[in-house]
């Protein structure tokens, strides 16, 4: 986890973002625990109430569940839910920005299609 203590983004949101990223990457597997509030607060010098506020955001999003006396655990299906949200965000925002930039640069639909297909065949997609 990496936090920007002097940035504009509140620390509780950064905690939530870091945990989301860990769930999405599989670092925190479904059904498994996430680091405790105490562990995160001590390791990263963040107020425990701030850490808990970030975790509670994910509880509210249905990604984490509290187990009394045991801690916070990743809900089954959380990784797929995060992936679906990111896909929707990408389609809604990323594609529109991508196409707008291509148009600004004078790249037409056919050329853009060839470039995208080339990116996939060259392994750019990262998989």
From TrEMBL:
CDD domains: WHTH_GntR. Keywords: DNA-binding, Transcription, Transcription regulation. The keyword Transcription regulation applies. InterPro entries: Tscrpt_reg_HTH_GntR. Residues 9-77 form the HTH gntR-type domain. Pfam families: GntR (PF00392). The keyword Ligase does not apply. PANTHER family: GNTR-FAMILY TRANSCRIPTIONAL REGULATOR (PTHR38445:SF10), HTH-TYPE TRANSCRIPTIONAL REPRESSOR YTRA (PTHR38445). This is GntR family transcriptional regulator.
């Amino acid at each position: 986890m990496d936090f920007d203590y002097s940035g504009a983004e509140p620390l509780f949101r950064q905690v939530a973002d870091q945990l989301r990223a860990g769930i999405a990457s599989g670092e925190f597997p479904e059904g498994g625990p996430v680091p405790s509030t105490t562990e995160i607060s001590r390791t990263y010098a963040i107020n425990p109430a701030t850490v808990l506020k970030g975790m509670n955001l994910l509880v509210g999003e249905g990604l984490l569940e509290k187990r009394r006396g045991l801690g916070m655990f990743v809900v089954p299906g959380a990784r797929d839910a995060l992936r679906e949200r990111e896909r929707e965000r990408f389609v809604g925002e990323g594609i529109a920005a991508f196409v707008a930039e291509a148009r600004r640069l004078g790249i037409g639909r056919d050329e853009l299609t060839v470039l995208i297909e080339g990116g996939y065949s060259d392994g750019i997609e990262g998989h």
